[in-house]
Specification:
The chain is mostly helical and 138 residues long. The C terminus is likely disordered. The protein contains nine helices and no strands. It is globular, with a radius of gyration of 17 Å.
Length: 138
C-alpha cells in the first residue's frame, strides 16, 4: 500500500521539481503538502531536501552510482541504496533485506542471522550475481 501511495504522488513531484537543486530549494510546506498522504511527510520532506542538497552540492546534481556514496545520503540507508543502484543503474551490489526477506530467509533456512546487515551478507554468499562489494565495505 505504501509503495502504491508513493507512486501516486511522485509524478506531481517530478513535474514540479526537475533537478536535485529544485528539490533542495523547495519550500518545506509546499513539498509537505504534496507528499502528505504518504505518512511521516514532514520528516520525508526534510530528508528529500537534504538528500537533494547533498546531491546538488557534492555530486554535480547526479545521484551517486557507488554504494558508499549513495548510502551516506540523508534518508538513504542500506536498503534504499541497494534498490536505487539496482533499479536505476542495474548494479547488483547487494541484497535488499526488508521485513519480508528477513522472515522468509529465516523460515526457508537460508540463514539464522537476525540483523539486516548479517542477513544480507549471508544471502550474498548464495544469491548468484551479487558482487560482495557491500560485505567488503561494511
Amino acid at each position: 500500500m505504501h509503495d502504491e501511495r508513493v507512486n501516486k504522488v511522485t509524478p506531481a513531484l517530478f513535474a514540479k521539481y526537475r533537478t536535485a537543486a529544485d528539490f533542495a530549494a523547495a519550500p518545506p510546506g509546499e513539498m509537505e503538502a504534496m507528499i502528505r498522504s504518504t505518512g511521516f511527510f514532514r520528516n520525508k520532506a526534510k530528508s528529500i531536501r537534504n538528500c537533494c542538497r547533498a546531491i546538488a552540492e557534492h555530486h554535480a546534481g547526479k545521484v551517486p552510482t557507488r554504494w558508499p556514496n549513495c548510502s551516506k545520503l540523508e534518508g538513504c540507508g542500506r536498503k534504499t541504496a541497494s534498490v536505487v543502484l539496482g533499479v536505476a543503474f542495474g548494479k547488483a551490489e547487494g541484497v535488499v533485506v526488508d521485513t519480508h526477506v528477513t522472515r522468509l530467509s529465516r523460515r526457508m533456512g537460508l540463514t539464522r542471522q537476525k540483523t539486516p546487515e548479517k542477513i544480507e551478507r549471508a544471502l550474498m554468499d548464495i544469491v548468484p550475481g551479487r558482487t560482495g562489494l557491500i560485505s567488503r565495505i561494511c
